[in-house]
Amino acid sequence: MLADLHCHTKLSDGSLGLEDIISLAAKKGVDTISVTDCDCTAGAARAKVIGQRKNVNVIPGVQITATDPQTGNNMHILAYLCDAPDRLAGLCQRNSLIRKRAAMVMISRVCDRYPVTPELVQRCATGSTNIYVPHIMQSLVECGLDNRLFGDLYEKLFTPDSPESVLVNARYTDVYRVLEEIDNAGGVSVLANPIADGCADRIADLAENGLCGVQAWHPDMTANDTDALLSVAKKNKLLAVGGTDFRGMYSDSIVSVGDVGTPKTQLNELLNFKTKKKRMLKKQAEGTV
Fold this sequence. Notes:
- This protein has eleven helices and seven strands.
- The protein is an alpha/beta fold.
- It has a seven-stranded mixed sheet with strand order 1-2-3-4-5-6-7.
- Strand 1, helix 1 and strand 2 form a beta-alpha-beta unit.
- Helix 1 runs parallel beside helix 2 (about 45-55) and helix 4 (about 120-125) packs across helix 5 (about 135-140).
């Protein structure tokens, strides 16, 4: 069974709680997952305990939102196995504040056009550390303005090129700083779903600036996408990981935990990466490489 190393819970923009998502993995026979909530490490310790109870190995992770200073576009960096996750707290807090400000503007725009209230949106986001687009859409569905989270109304309001879009193009922490802070925290940085974010052409530059890996398996990717990313990863000596980007009912496609994931060989490479890196740095320091 593949290891699903990209899962979101109710703490960020997923609909399932930690226990529910780990129970789902156990029921499906998925023995390894990573909870990678957006700019949030709050559930890491509890997820590990629940995983041990249900015989699911939970790899510590977090998804950090970043902005590419060269293009102005946003991308997402997965950070795994941090030795000192507390060192990412400031980064997560800064990003969380940026996201909250953007959400408030989007909520205001939606409430000006439709009979929903900010209080309802807040209730839809109960349990999350922030407010995300699916929470806003849920409030619209609750008020009978659509019957799908990702239907016509979503396309109208949350598609960037829609003339009626309410999206806010928030700028998050510089991606190079994100890579540096993950490294300072003793973590392994992986570029999440570069196809969807349109940043596959930035992989080589990011690798030169500390990126450790790339997500090469994702439900939205074609076989050709995966092959191309695996080729880029090999060329730049990067890890390759996979996962569903699972969000429960907030997923925009039909996907469940473990449907897409990381093969065993690549999982072992991730788990052994830091030891291998330390060995290499020691050899370099000794002048034997």
